[in-house]
Specification:
The complex is a heterodimer. In chain A, 44% of the residues lie in helices and 11% in strands. Chain A is of the alpha/beta class. In chain A, the strands form two sheets. In chain A, strands 5-4-6-7-8 form a five-stranded parallel β-sheet, sandwiched between helices. In chain A, strands 1-3-2 form a three-stranded antiparallel β-sheet, with no helix packed on it. In chain A, helix 6 packs parallel to helix 11 and helix 7 (178-189) packs parallel to helix 11. Chain B has two domains: 52-165, no CATH class; 179-300, Ribosomal Protein S5, domain 2. Chain B is built from eleven helices and five strands, in the order H-H-H-H-H-H-E-E-H-E-E-H-H-E-H-H. In chain B, strands 1-2-5-3-4 form a five-stranded mixed β-sheet. The termini of chain B are far apart. The interface between A and B is large, with 49 and 33 residues.
């Protein structure tokens, strides 16, 4: 089985122009998967030439040797792509979910699947969080998603209406996996969203030191809404927002007091999938708000708006 | 063309100006009443922060990071579609030429924030990765990718002040055929000039041809090479044989004793310190005169500045290390 797959792949060191690629009549599933996964390993194992791979020949610089070898590798890869395109592509049924629900059509099962209901240890349950708890299982507090869903929908409507009125939303997510989510949210919401990965204390309350007095004079130094993906780890930022009377939204977990933010979304803060789900719901709502704002502007100015 | 009696005069006028249905169909135009675009009419947007990364507190830094990461991803994608990336693990990794980035203070100024170690390292890692990718693109003749990366990296690169990599200008033999070297040891410093001696012509020619030639015999009478230290011959300035050997060692190693006239000026310190300084200066001058001697002298350590200095005396001790006698009470 191994030999058939290796013999089928052309050796790199031979002159490629003269030989045609031998496509095997029959490939077993295991062989095709192995050659797919091996990639470079396959191309190294087939060439049993005497010279060590990549070595410069006499009178050739290392750079030229690298270029020559690289050309062979690229040719090999082009032929491999041609071969691959001819093979039937194997995909397990789970790879393509036929009807992936959009964040707007959020359902209980989607939230549950992302792990939103898993809270922290029941011994760490905050007393003020009790109304949002469904119960306890395996020593964990289970968050009541029946409440989370309408809360999330109301929060999304809030974001949409705020962006429709041309408000500024600040999204804060300081965990490792939040970077990509923030980027996508920014793409959706355009210049209505400002993302922060690491909070610098004093950004809102001491903005003169950071930015000078000009933004303060233009009243362009504060957001209109703040969304926190991990509020319990950004308490300083939340304090600054409350000091400046900025409403806050946050994903609160069962060990946190939900009253630290204005609009708590009870869900599992530790799960990146849950954060992705929630943030994409809110950012798509923001995108909708942009669209509505543009429509309203066009209607008001009679189609002569520049934007 | 009828004038409606109930509507306002403006509306009536508008109605009268509107072309009839048949006319519109014939001309195939969509009638839009003209309204001059007035700047005041366009609603100004409420003031908002100037940059997308405003609330990070370090907007320029985070903008730079995202720009570099985007450039890296797009370059990798382009190279991937050209079947270059990922580089085959079996080939040796191409080493890019040494990159000269701006020093940390300049980068801090550029990015508008005092860069601490982690932030600086993050920037440097990204820059070095982009630099390596640019080298790979250059080797594989992907001019598009290379140009894009050039544009991205331009503001972070330090201009070479001319000359070799490392910025040091190589010393040269001057118009009179002299090579100059400077050396220091302990508190002494020395300046040395060497020039080919008349008797050394034969030696030097043989040396350049790579032949091993025995040193010129004393009795042959051809030796006219002089070594002067502070205007006096070396034997008078350095009575001790060890000091003389320290001075002559570079010449012995390269087999060029008698080939040069040496003129040294030493100042400061004591005898062996001055001897060491003269020896180092001589070795450096020798490398300037004959670059092929560098390998031998480097391996011997003759080109290494001996940084050992007299250690200071400490309080509570008699000397730097010597302690006072221990007393039980």
């Amino acid at each position: 089985m191994a030999s058939t797959s290796k013999a089928a792949i052309p050796a790199v060191r031979t002159t490629l122009s003269s030989k045609a690629v031998a496509i095997p009549a029959r490939r077993t599933f295991a062989a095709s998967i192995r050659s797919f996964a091996e990639g470079d390993a396959a191309e190294s194992s087939t060439a049993r030439s005497t010279a060590p791979r990549g070595a410069a020949e006499v009178g050739e610089s290392t750079e030229d040797a690298w270029k020559r070898n690289m050309e062979e590798v690229r040719e090999w890869r082009r032929r491999r792509d041609v071969q691959r395109s001819k093979l039937p592509l194997f995909l397990p049924p789970s790879a393509t979910a036929p009807n992936a629900p959009s964040p707007l059509r959020l359902s209980l099962s989607t939230l549950l699947a992302s792990g939103a209901a898993l809270g922290h240890a029941s011994s760490a349950l905050h007393p003020a969080y009790l109304p949002y708890t469904y119960g306890t299982r395996s020593g964990l507090s289970i968050i009541d998603l029946d409440q989370t869903l309408p809360i999330l929908r109301r929060t999304a409507a809030l974001v949409r209406d705020l962006v429709k009125e041309d408000g500024v939303v600040m999204i804060v997510g300081s965990r490792a996996g939040h970077g990509k989510l923030l980027k996508r949210a920014r793409e959706r919401m355009g210049d209505s969203a400002y993302v922060v990965e690491e909070w610098m204390p004093g950004t809102l309350t001491n903005s003169v030191t950071f930015f000078g007095v000009a933004p303060m004079q233009n009243q362009a130094h504060l957001p209109d809404l703040a969304i926190f993906l991990n509020p319990s780890e950004n308490l300083g930022a939340i304090r600054e927002c409350t000091a400046k009377n900025i409403p806050t939204i946050g994903i609160v977990d069962s060990d946190t007091d939900p009253r630290i933010v204005t609009y708590p979304i009870p869900a599992n803060m530790e799960s990146i999938r849950t954060a992705e789900l929630i943030l994409s719901t809110l950012s798509i709502a923001g995108e909708e708000g942009r669209r509505l704002r543009r429509q309203a502007r066009i209607a008001r100015t009679g189609g002569q708006s520049r934007r | 063309m009828s004038i409606a009696s109930s509507s306002s005069s403006l509306q009536a006028l508008r109605g009268s100006l509107r072309p009839s249905a048949t006319c519109r169909r014939a001309l195939n135009i969509e009638f839009k009443p003209f309204r001059p675009v007035d700047d005041a009419a366009l609603e100004p947007r409420p003031p908002r922060p100037s940059t997308p990364t405003f609330f990070t507190g370090r907007p320029a830094y985070h903008t730079a990071i995202s720009e570099l990461e985007t450039a890296l991803l797009s370059a990798q994608q382009s190279l991937r579609s050209a079947h270059i990336y990922p580089l085959p693990s079996t080939l040796p990794t191409p080493q890019p030429p040494r990159a000269a980035w701006h020093p940390a203070p300049v980068l801090s100024n550029l990015l508008g924030t005092q860069l601490k170690t982690n932030a600086h390292r993050r920037i440097l890692d990204l820059l070095n990765e982009l630099h390596a990718l640019r080298h790979v693109a250059a080797l594989s003749e992907q001019a598009g990718v290379e140009n894009v990366l050039d544009g991205v990296l331009a503001r972070y690169e330090r201009e070479e002040r001319g000359g070799v990599e490392g910025g040091k200008k190589a010393a040269e033999v001057d118009e009179w055929g002299r090579a100059y070297g400077m050396g220091r040891r302990k508190e002494s410093s020395a300046r040395v000039w060497i020039v080919p001696s008349p008797s050394g012509r034969r030696l030097l020619d043989a040396h350049s041809e790579g032949e091993a030639v025995a040193t010129v015999e004393e009795g042959e009478g051809e030796v006219q090479a002089e070594i002067l230290v502070n205007h006096v011959p070396i034997a008078i300035h350095f009575p001790k044989i060890t000091d003389r050997e320290t001075v002559l060692r570079p010449l012995r190693l390269s087999g060029l004793i008698g080939a040069f006239n040496v003129f040294a000026l030493a100042r400061g310190g004591g005898t062996s310190g001055q001897a060491g300084a003269v020896g180092l200066a001589l070795a450096r001058a020798l490398v300037v005169m004959r670059s092929e001697t560098e390998e031998v002298l480097q391996r011997d350590g003759a080109l290494m500045r001996d940084t050992r200095m007299v250690e200071r005396k400490k309080t509570g001790s008699a000397k730097a290390r010597k302690k006072y006698a221990w007393v039980k009470r």
